[in-house]
Amino acid sequence: AKDSRCGIRVYRPEDDHDTARRLALMAGLRVAVDAGTLTVVYQPKVDPATGRVLGAEALVRWQHDGRPVPPDEFIPLAEQARLIGPLTRHVLDTALADCATWRGLGHPLTVAVNLSPDMLTDSALTGQIEQALRRHGMPPEALTLEITENAIMADPTNSRRTLDALHGLGVKLSIDDFGTGHSSLGRLAHLPIHEVKIDKSFVRHIVTDRTRRAVTDAALQLARALDLTVVAEGVEEQDELDYLRRHGCHAIQGYLISKPIPPVEFLTWLTAARAGG
Ligand code: C2E
Ligand code: CA
Ligand code: CA
Ligand code: CA
Q1: Is 70's C-beta closer than 6 angstroms to any atom of ligand 1?
Q2: Is the ipTM of this complex over 0.95?
Q3: How many Å apart are CA 17 and CA 192, to the nearest integer?
Q4: What does the pLDDT read at residue 7?
Q5: pLDDT given for residue 5 in this prediction
Q6: Ligand 1 pocket member 140 (CB < 6 A)
Q7: How far, in Å, CA of 8 to CA of 5, rounded?
Q8: Domain named EAL: which ranges (predicted)?
Q9: Could you identify the atom of ligand 1 that is nearest to the CA of residue 75?
Q10: Among the listed ranges 16-20, 187-191, 250-254, 273-277, which one has the minimum average pLDDT value?
Q11: Which of the four pLDDT bands, split at 50, 70 and 90, describes residue 45?
């Protein structure tokens, strides 16, 4: 046994196991990113007042050894292994191609792609996005980039530079997981953002929990004052949707409407959703 008094960590067999698993996953992920075998699923964003489909969020999926690995597990690994750049470019390219298809079929939708914190300080990002838009003949305003507030606050100066460049390009910027970070509403107000996404941990208890409802109400008020769009994620219950609609939430996402689904299924769902009104 090692001595923890000297600042040496006590040996646990599960540490080796965790490390081995992480290394195996990283190696597998590298292969998947190189081979382009990561897939993308889409979750619709819907106007709660009219039921109209506004767009979809692209979420990456990975099968390793025949099993799905959750993004919450492999995205941090991709970040550590410096694979997040190529991974994001793959998701972006796939999402823009699919969105161009929807639009070509007469569905005027937007698509949202998640950006990891590190991407925000990558000076090549704006140019890559501009090229990807051009490759797929997509107007910049049809693309939303979702960024967490903590990502911005980790390096406010460089993030600001990137956000300004992306804003100049004409793409839309969304603050993801709103309410879970440490930033004040006032600081966000100075950024060139178009949208805030209320985190599902607040939406979950919107009807029963005063504290979480207060965060949602504050977001809706701020958004109205600043001309921002408010999206609520993780909507699972009809009474959550009703509350959000009554309080002027612009868009909702969640299992109540649809789980994230593969592109072919999404097109079928879209056609059925439109036929149903
Ligand atoms: P996120 O961006 O906050 O995405 C929302 C997550 O909530 C997704 O999990 C989605 O499947 C899930 N969700 C949607 N509706 C509901 C609902 O009604 N109830 C519940 N309980 N969950 C719901 P997912 O796909 O597992 O992704 C987890 C996280 O991984 C994402 O959180 C995002 O931070 C990250 N991620 C996913 N795809 C990408 C990607 O392409 N790039 C990057 N950088 N991160 C990604
Ligand atoms: Ca997101
Ligand atoms: Ca989120
Ligand atoms: Ca998240």
Answers
A1: yes
A2: yes
A3: 44
A4: 60
A5: 53
A6: no
A7: 7
A8: 22-274
A9: 45
A10: 273-277
A11: very high
**Alpha-helical regions (H) of 54-117:** 71-80, 84-104
Which residue would you say has higher pLDDT here, 27 or 152? 27
Q: How far is the CA of 59 from the centre of ligand 1 (A)?
A: 6
Model confidence at 195: pLDDT above 70: yes
Is the CB of residue 55 below 6 angstroms from any atom belonging to ligand 1? Answer: no
Residue 201, CA distances (Å) to 20, 215, 219, 236 in order: 32, 11, 14, 12
Orientation of helix 125-135 relative to helix 156-169, angle to 10°: 20
Tens digit of each residue's pLDDT (9 = 90 or more) over 132-186: 999 999 999 999 999 998 888 888 888 899 999 999 999 999 999 887 876 666 7
Contacts of 240 (CB under 8 A, 6+ apart): 203, 204, 206, 207, 232, 254, 256
User: How many other CB atoms are there within 10 angstroms of residue 262's CB atom?
Assistant: 13
pTM assigned to the model:
0.93
Measured between alpha carbons, how far apart are the two ends of the chain, in Å? 67
The atom number, within ligand 1, closest to the CA of 70 reads: 26
Q: Which amino acid is at 156?
A: P
Confidence of residue 217 (pLDDT cuts 50, 70, 90): confident
C-alpha distances (whole Å) from 27 to each of 15, 21, 22, 90 are: 18, 10, 9, 18
Nearest-CA neighbor of 252 among 265, 264, 268, 234? 234
For the Cβ of 174 lying below 6 angstroms from any atom of ligand 1, the answer is: no
Q: Which residue CA neighbors atom 10 of ligand 1 most closely? A: 260
Q: Say if ligand 1 is within 6 A of residue 114 CB.
A: yes
Cα–Cα distance, 46 to 54 (Å, whole number): 5
For the CA of 59, the nearest atom of ligand 1: 38
**Ligand 1 neighbourhood includes 199 CB (under 6 angstroms):** no
